[in-house]
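Incident log, structure service

09:12 report received: a user says their structure output differs between two submissions of the same chain.
09:20 pulled the input from the user's history:
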Amino acid sequence: MYSGAGFSDWEIGDISIYIHNGTYHLFHLIIPNHDYIAHAISRDGLTWRRTKNAIFVGDPGEWDDDMLWTMHVFSKEERFFMYYTGLQREHKGVNSKIGLAMSDDLLSWTKVKHEGLPIEIRKGFYECIGDNPRGWLSFRDPFYFEHDGEAYILFCGRKNFGPLSRRGCVGLLKIEDKKYVLKECLIYPMVYDDVECPCVFELDGKFYIIGSIREDVKVRYWMSDRFIGQYITFHTDFLLPEGNYAARTVWDGDHLLLYNFFFTHGAIDSLRVLPPPKELSTDSAGRLVLKSFYRWEQMVTNRVLQKDFGTPVQVLKNSTSNFKHENGQWNCSSESGYEIFYFDQPSDNFIWEGKIKNLGLGKFGLVAHIDHDSNGYFISFDLIEGLILLRSWGYNPANSRQNFIYSTLQSNVCIVPPSGTIRFKLICYGNYIELSVDGEVKLTLMDYTWSGPGMGLYTAASSVILEESVIKTLPQVVNEYASQEVAQKNM
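09:34 re-ran on a clean worker, output below:
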């Protein structure tokens, strides 16, 4: 994981990922100053270290002398290019423009100056200077895309009609003879104030646009049969649950990866972290599906089978609870009230997989990083309504009048299988938590509250069967400041 933190814990902003010769390159904004675009590299896509910064704000009087906003890095004809958003002090943030920088090695960047750059919004399809009732323009967050031999730039824009809080759209520029020609937008949902950090990709014969939504701090998506066509949405149209933002895609061989940063505590000025990526796939209806990063399996150091977990401790000493171990199955139950079935984590960092089934109508779930006082993370499964919740739950010594912590960190829906049995995969890696249900990532977040040594299951008026379970241990997380030298020799 990576936060880029220095003076504050929330310095990482919008991102762009590029993979070259097996090295992952992360470019990101520096918040809140927006005065340069930082550059970090990784060999595995998980552990990052900073290298030479890419570009800085311009000198006084230049078009980008105030702030730099979202960028996109790509390659063409063996050179590297970066479209980026810039602001000028003279305009006091009202008029964002899009500029271009290029590089021969991804380390040293030169801003391009020729006719047509920077690109500025003009009258026509979108809000522009003289027609921006909100008081500031959205012409930003460029994303370069080629299709059928033509080159385009997607951007975060706003239509020039409709309710003021619902004008956000994904705008489109076409590059024709080195000129940037405004086209009608790709999507206008008529729902959101802005569709930030848009990107487009083709997968399994369909085109998908993803965008980040400030209203609920989620990443949403739209699908079409054609790049320039009618994009539709689904009944559950969010790709990443709350707290995840500014997502962008990158191809890693045959794997389409999705990267984003995460707001801890759901606050814009709280710790921001770049969590591990997820992979993108589709289902039979064309809906996007999140899968775990393929490199997790490459990192496994040991495997512990369910028969070697040891007998769990019943933490709450519930007199109606019971534990049975037979035929390779665990049966954890409580007739009334809660019980936590605790056993020691074989490692601080692990992948826990297995099949779980609830025989009753009561509550049940998993626990992780929990201690013997029942402080930790509780993952709740509701297989009647199809709901998953991750809660931070425990004792709060700082407040005697409210001496508990009880916070829902993230939620998602799931399909309820007719059998009532689900296959789960829980990844705990440092402060990162990821839960998959039947092969689909449903929860993905960072949290820094608990670090207990135990894991297990909980029940409440329910009987749970666990089987085919295994814990795969992972290596220790590398601190991002362990090695901060400029990494030119590793390029």
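09:41 both user submissions now match this output. Likely a transient worker issue. Closing.
09:42 reviewer note: Residues 369 and 452 are 4 Å apart (CA to CA). The first helix runs from residue 295 to 298.
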